[in-house]
């Protein structure tokens, strides 16, 4: 007798002993309950078989009583959830309903259809805000900042920030801060690693670069994450911890994280502490900036005035003529740091990984950079490594722009985004949307959709972005890496400039070689980090290699 039978019989014995003696099973026939159990098992098996055949016929996700489609999701999370969503969307012609367990938040419509995206992000924009669920989940960290606001609060910040982002003073700030960060900080760290022939985590280095950069733009303060020795910076650490803990709320039932917050325990306690550190840092910067502005005003000095976002918002007045509160100023800065801290660095990490697999693309980028330097007319003197690209040269790097866009198409920094339906609506593909429904748009899946990009959609081909050698942008509803419509990424131009400037500085000097056998896969987070970072070796380009490009 196998051990399973022993167990069943033991349980049955216990059951039968409590039955009245005239019950047919109460006597000596212990085999009868085994048949009973067998029948139940067979019934379950038949149910599962019929159910799965029905689901297969519908080509949809299997949906079970109570747990809904959760079993499929659990399987997907253990592998690559983005590939899984892409596959389901391909089978369901671009849109499907996901229903999680009863009484959970996991209910939404998922789409990758560009017609639906245009409807959602532009045509019916007011009907699809971020929504109450999102706002209440991230409010502790983001307050009323642009990322978390809808309606008037959002519109006001968007308008002011948009004017600022397009001002010449701001552009100058971004150009200068990047020269400083790349040449005085990034390249020395890379040079050290190349000289010692040790490998580094390029993703970590790039994250430090963009964190310092966005803090300089938002706060006018350089936290100094990217320095030799790669120090741990308390503010950067607190910011990272706060973001990670906030993201966890999305996969935790609301009543659980709210109870934990109330009791101040576990991850919610750590979140509270991290937010406190972020706030203390922000309050300190705001306080000292106020003092600095007063000093400048007293000295009638307008020349040394800063042009970071914090200073811009501090000079403005709200609709009732009052200065913005410190709390609101904090929200503005924290939101911009969140928006710009890791999106560009993560995109660059995937770009360098793709480049390692496509040396022909790398050659073309080096050739383009060398051609642009040659146009200066003093190339011989500039090959040696101290080249600093000028803003107009970075603009001319169109092949590089195509190569970065292609990386973003396949590995968008924000792989999925979401909205909430205000009033009942219907998508252009016929999907019915009930008020309150959450809509998820699958940006990663869009890059892998043949109907959008053709049969070679999974291949890395920067040429698809070029017409007669010039970079051609795509509709935001096909290429949604930067979102679209009124909420199009405000930092898009800046991000391209930043990524091109940093990538050109690196590619021109080094061949970035991914360490053999290093595993590369996306992490499950709001931003598509590489789960294990990007371990690389940097091989310095020699002059003769660059001279070859200068000749061609
Ligand atoms: C490769 C780099 C970047 C990518 C792929 C990217 C992508 C996105 C996406 C998808 C959104 C929409 C998010 C949402 O509403 O849920 C967004 C919004 C935004 N991004 Fe970016 N972003 C990048 C870099 C930056 C940078 C460097 C900054 C600023 C320094 C920035 C500032 C913003 C802001 C302020 C918003 C909010 C716009 C609004 O809601 O009106 N982004 N970005």
Automatic annotation (TrEMBL):
The keyword Nucleus does not apply. Signal peptide: none annotated. Keywords: Heme, Iron, Membrane, Metal-binding, Monooxygenase, Oxidoreductase, Transmembrane, Transmembrane helix. GO terms for cellular component: membrane. GO terms for molecular function: heme binding; iron ion binding; monooxygenase activity; oxidoreductase activity, acting on paired donors, with incorporation or reduction of molecular oxygen. PROSITE patterns: CYTOCHROME_P450 (PS00086). It is a single-pass membrane protein. InterPro entries: Cyt_P450, Cyt_P450_CS, Cyt_P450_E_grp-I, Cyt_P450_sf. The chain crosses the membrane at residues 30-50. GO terms for biological process: lipid metabolic process. Its cofactor is heme. Pfam families: p450. Heme binds at residue 489. It is found in: Membrane. Belongs to the cytochrome P450 family. PANTHER family: CYTOCHROME P450. This is Cytochrome P450.
